[in-house]
UniProtKB/TrEMBL annotation, chains A, B:
InterPro entries: Tscrpt_reg_PadR_N, WH-like_DNA-bd_sf, WH_DNA-bd_sf. PANTHER family: NEGATIVE TRANSCRIPTION REGULATOR PADR, TRANSCRIPTIONAL REGULATOR YQJI. This is DNA-binding PadR family transcriptional regulator. The keyword Iron-sulfur does not apply. The keyword Transmembrane helix does not apply. Residues 7-79 form the Transcription regulator PadR N-terminal domain. Keywords: DNA-binding. Pfam families: PadR (PF03551). The lineage of its organism: Bacteria, Bacillati, Actinomycetota, Actinomycetes, Micrococcales.
Amino acid sequence: MSLRYALLAILTAAPLTGYETAKRFEGSVGHVWHAPDSQIYPELRRMETEGLVQGREERWGPNSTKTRYYITAEGESAFRGWMSEPLRYAPWRDVAHMQAAYFEWTDPDSVRMHLQQHAQHYEEQIAQWSSQVQAIESHEHPMIAARLQRYPAEQHARIVAFKSFAYEGLIRLAQAEVDWANSGLALLEELEAQDAEGAG
Amino acid sequence: MSLRYALLAILTAAPLTGYETAKRFEGSVGHVWHAPDSQIYPELRRMETEGLVQGREERWGPNSTKTRYYITAEGESAFRGWMSEPLRYAPWRDVAHMQAAYFEWTDPDSVRMHLQQHAQHYEEQIAQWSSQVQAIESHEHPMIAARLQRYPAEQHARIVAFKSFAYEGLIRLAQAEVDWANSGLALLEELEAQDAEGAG
């Protein structure tokens, strides 16, 4: 169901064709809620059936048409409704931490590889999300630009502030992952020093 | 596939019946990798078919038997193999941050409710994971006790250290979530103050 709300979120910024929706998704809300194109197209059609969006045929080239999706009043109301309901939190599933709990089953070099890879992965995420924050705050992000054009000026501050805030939360999480991996590398050295002492 | 490795991890501590596996799962690795019982039983049977565990029938009461699962050499080798392969990181999917990006669609009271709920949820997780760390470090956790009995003393330090380390990572993440929610509450006050100024 989250995909549906992510798609409604995008369509509150501008009416889009299926193709544009998939592209804009990837460059905006897809950073926070990943979904492949193969899920996006059928979900848009389901949403149309349920009256949350309206598809309008548009001329596309000399002999063909394409569908542009407009959020309906019902779609906006579903989106607002979701916004005012408490979230249900899914139980935790994290394979990196699960694996780390059993690191005694591999050699120190593998542990080091895993922890370095973990830190690197989340450093890359930080870089990616930080550039999103920058594009949001400078209003250069195409979705932000479209959104600001559509909504009155007195709403602009909070539109921008909440989007930055969402990404800043992800950056905090990624930083916690990097710090954790680094503390693991320190732990590994400690354990190796203890082993060396034990053997000495 | 992660469920399979989580089950192998448990069975490296002790051979268990299906029922015991499900119970022990919930009290240990299930904190990090949640899975319902309905997934655990069929996966154990598949693992038996593939030779990763061996089921041995045991007498259970006067007229019945139950199956106890023992990890095989092949199972241990699969577990070690997984441990030495780099992880593939799944793309991000986080509904709380996704929703926060569009908080301008609801009123300040709903935003406050979401952020307070978010902080509370992760504070509860911190409490739960902290009590796991305590039970691990005191060796009172039943799975740790079983595991330490099974493996030589020179491995005990790392067995305990890595398990604590895994949970400490989760606590760091949960703390980052709490801090983020609190920063959101501060942001909300700021935006409300700006609105009041604008209206004044």
